[in-house]
Design a protein that fits this description.
heterodimer, A: 114 residues, mainly beta, B: 114 residues, Immunoglobulin-like, 12 strands, globular
């Protein structure tokens, strides 16, 4: 069975540009969450979507947005990129709304802003 | 505010020796606790979780953790480590009021020496 897949795996963008990251959850998983992991830090919660609705938002600026599609895949968009947005962006999926039974994480998209 | 503290940023240990990775949390509400492992250039893999019941939790790859409510700790142990256990280990907490939002510690890099 395929796990959580993310694309692209690596990305280099210039300050001020916009970026879209994609995530396909495990088949049957209806919940997708996004986390940002800055080098040397633990992951920080950005968004959670369940059944195509936003169910939670972390402490990130409005430059960050996301959506979930009918097939439960998801996109994370970041506008007006800053150098500080350079990080590993992780997508995680789970069967139900909460992560009570644990999330399955993808391998991430490494974004470098120059 | 809730937080997770991993006091040791790096832990070197010889192969076949025991290891203990420390995790403390602070929360005014009940939490669920998790340990994840991250191998280089990969996403996070769930090692074990504490939801309720027995305070000693066994996970994959021979790891176990003990929940101590009075000390607000959830330390990870393994009686005998292997070279392949070299990785970054993250402790995470999810409040029962919002289990979708994990709060991660900053991670502990376990280096197993031959």
């Amino acid at each position: 069975d395929a796990g959580v897949t993310q694309s692209p795996t690596h990305l280099i963008k210039t300050r001020g540009q916009q970026v879209t990251l994609r995530c396909s959850p495990i088949s049957g998983h209806k919940s997708v969450s996004w986390y940002q992991q800055v080098l040397g830090q633990g992951p920080q919660f950005i968004f959670q979507y369940y059944e195509k609705e936003e169910r939670g938002r972390g402490n990130f600026p409005d430059r960050f947005s996301a959506r979930q599609f009918p097939n439960y895949s998801s996109e994370l968009n970041v506008n007006a990129l800053l150098l500080g947005d350079s990080a590993l962006y992780l997508c995680a999926s789970s069967l139900q709304h909460g992560g009570l039974y644990g999330y399955t994480f993808g391998s991430g998209t490494r974004l470098t802003v120059v | 505010a809730q937080s997770v503290t991993q006091l040791d940023s790096q832990v070197p240990v010889f192969e076949e020796a025991p290891v203990k990775l420390r995790c403390n949390y602070s929360s005014s509400v009940s939490v669920y606790l998790f340990w994840y492992v991250q191998y280089p250039n990969q996403g996070l893999q769930l090692l074990l979780k504490y939801l309720s019941g027995s305070t000693l939790v066994k996970g994959i790859n021979g790891f176990e953790a003990e929940f101590n409510k009075s000390q607000t700790s959830f330390h990870l142990r393994k009686p005998s480590v292997h070279i392949s256990d070299t990785a970054e280990y993250f402790c995470a907490a999810a409040p029962d009021s919002g289990t979708y939002k994990y709060i991660f510690g900053t991670g502990t890099r376990l280096k197993v020496l031959a």
